[in-house]
Amino acid sequence: MSVKRDSAALGERTTESSPRMGEYQDIDAYITAIGQRVRGARARRGMTRKDLSRHSDISQRYLAQVESGQANISVGLLSRVAQALNLDIQELLPPSSNEAVAGQAELQHLLERLTAEQLVQARQLLAAHFEHPPRDVKGIALVGLRGGGKSTLGRLLAEHQRIPFIRLGNVIESLAGMDIPELFSRGGQDVYRQVELQAVEYVLGSYDKVILETGGSLVSERETYNLVINSFYTVWIQASPGEHMARVIEQGDLRPIKGNSEAMDDLKLILEERRPQYGAAHYALDTSGRDIDESLQELVDVCAPYCGPSPPGGSR
């Protein structure tokens, strides 16, 4: 395997570099682009580099060099990274310059210039023009990172509407017969995502109406997230990175900062990488700087039409 620098120190096998360079004339720029896609995919999955190393059998040091654009990863090793992330290898390669991809890039560039409020408006306009509402809304699904307020607001909304509140993580553990960390450790992303999809299908088949709290990384799995969006009125519960972190720590969970001096940078990266997926929800509720009663009232106002015995007539 060839590397940009210090190849002997890496102790990895030399092979051909990755394919599909397309319009990239500078190999270093292409290598850097691959590294950014690997890091972004890992962030969307919510995986640590240690987890990716264990499931791909590639050293953390080498993965760090790949993500920083210092190593020219081989096709074979990139395939192992993709498998550990439960992705097709093509998703880790920079796109070629065909018309469809160019159009997507232009759209992405436009969206990146919008404010958070404008993104919500753009999503609603696109949804109104292109999306078909689910005929049988099964209730409300809450998406977003830990610390946004999903659990607190979800339980209160369920009490207000007198329908069940279900944490998808509990369903996953029940179906798997083990806790989620053990499921990840034994089966990796592939097995976890299979059980996660089964858990959503179980909820859909077991309840008429429900408030469903999903895991933060569910949005990174296209098939599962599409099922959620097409079955529930979906709300992104969000907050500023600082409030996300503070709330998790207040709950006694020190994992975000334990042994990780770059915890806030990692959190910001995860939010940035998942923003397009979270932004696909039908509604975004920002809980930053707001008390529980104020956030709950907005959630009730928005969600009440979708919690009753009959879905609203053809609208979302």
Strands across the major sheet, in which order?
A: 2-3-1-4-5
- Terminal CA distance reads 52 Å
SSE order, one letter for each helix or strand: HHHHHHHEHEHHEHEHHEH
Please outline the major beta sheet: 5 strands, parallel
Runs in which pLDDT lies below 50 for 5 or more consecutive residues are 1-18, 310-316
Class by alpha and beta content? alpha/beta
Radius of gyration equals: 21 Å
Summarize the structure.
With 316 residues, the protein is an alpha/beta fold. Helix content is 55%, strand content 7%.
Secondary-structure blueprint of this entry?
Layout: H1 7-10, H2 27-45, H3 49-56, H4 60-67, H5 75-84, H6 99-112, H7 116-130, E1 139-143, H8 150-161, E2 165-167, H9 168-176, H10 180-206, E3 210-213, H11 222-231, E4 233-238, H12 241-250, H13 263-278, E5 283-286, H14 292-303
Parallel strand pairs: 1-3, 1-4, 2-3, 4-5
Structure notes:
Residues 1-18 and 310-316 have low confidence and may be disordered. The chain is globular. The termini are far apart. It has 14 helices and five strands. The chain is an alpha/beta fold and 316 residues long. The protein has a five-stranded parallel sheet with strand order 2-3-1-4-5, with helices on both faces.
Descriptive keywords:
single chain; alpha/beta; 7% strand; globular
